[in-house]
């Protein structure tokens, strides 16, 4: 009984996932997600919104709607494996993002969505990965019921930087260099000495022909990581471009 989940609402489900031979690969007594946010496999994204609270459903998912062609290490799912899901819809409620939440819950939501983005990225679904990374940032930036403590504040900051770096990588895969550069710069506003963001920003500036700016950024990256062969290579390439041709 009760209404089916509406767009933007959060659901709690009990999930069991099994292979064709009956081997149990997934068990979660209370999985929480928002359908449409890309946090779970497609079988659950598409199936759960058809359910009512208290209902138990079985979904037989072909591999594109489960863990894809490569399968998964965690949970342990073989390549191209169909899965049978037993799903119980426990609860439907309004989505958590606009509401103040404890810092620990914000961190959990942010981590869950970033990991889902990594799942999509590994499968070359870069648009879905970017969507998950943006949802992670929204969770991390949302209001909290109490000010985070020093350790929570540091973890929130680190997770934001990771997400922004991941956004930049996804934007590059989608051919959007300007958006990738903006994500790098946002990461550096939070953590000015983040080596990953410095390197990628330097590379993007060099691609735009902004060699002087790129050299400053890459030299700073080299100070932080003097052994990096990638940074040495980028600086050498810039030096060759800036050197005048030798006269005979």
From TrEMBL:
Its EC number is 5.2.1.8. Residues 8-93 form the PPIase FKBP-type domain. It is an enzyme of class 5 (isomerase). It comes from the Eukaryota. This is peptidylprolyl isomerase. The lineage of its organism: Eukaryota, Metazoa, Chordata, Craniata, Vertebrata. One of its GO terms (molecular function) is protein folding chaperone. TPR repeats lie at residues 195-228. Coiled coil: none annotated. InterPro entries: FKBP4/5/8-like, PPIase_dom_sf, PPIase_FKBP_dom, TPR-like_helical_dom_sf, TPR_rpt. One of its GO terms (biological process) is negative regulation of apoptotic process. Pfam families: FKBP_C, TPR_19. Keywords: Isomerase, Repeat, Rotamase, TPR repeat.
């Amino acid at each position: 009984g009760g209404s089916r989940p509406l767009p933007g609402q959060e659901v709690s489900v009990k999930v069991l996932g099994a292979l064709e031979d009956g081997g149990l690969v997934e068990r979660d007594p209370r999985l929480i997600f928002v359908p449409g946010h890309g946090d779970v496999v497609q079988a659950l994204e598409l199936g759960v919104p058809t359910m009512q609270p208290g209902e138990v459903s079985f979904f037989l998912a072909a591999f594109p709607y489960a863990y894809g062609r490569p399968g998964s290490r965690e949970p342990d799912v073989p390549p191209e494996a169909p899965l049978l899901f037993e799903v119980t819809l426990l609860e439907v409620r309004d989505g958590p993002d606009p509401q103040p939440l404890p810092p620990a819950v914000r961190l959990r939501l942010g981590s869950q969505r970033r990991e889902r983005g990594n799942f999509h990225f590994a499968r070359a679904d870069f648009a879905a990965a970017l969507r998950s990374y943006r949802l992670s940032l929204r969770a991390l930036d949302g209001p909290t019921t109490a000010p985070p403590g020093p350790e929570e504040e540091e973890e929130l900051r680190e997770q934001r930087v990771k997400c922004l770096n991941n956004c930049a990588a996804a934007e590059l895969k989608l051919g959007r260099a300007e958006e990738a550069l903006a994500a790098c710069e946002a990461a550096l506003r939070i953590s000015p000495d983040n080596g990953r963001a410095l390197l990628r920003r330097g590379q993007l500036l060099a691609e735009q022909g902004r060699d002087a700016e790129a050299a400053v950024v890459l030299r700073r990256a080299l100070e932080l990581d003097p052994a990096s062969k990638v940074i040495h290579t980028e600086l050498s390439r810039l030096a060759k471009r800036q050197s005048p041709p030798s006269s005979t």
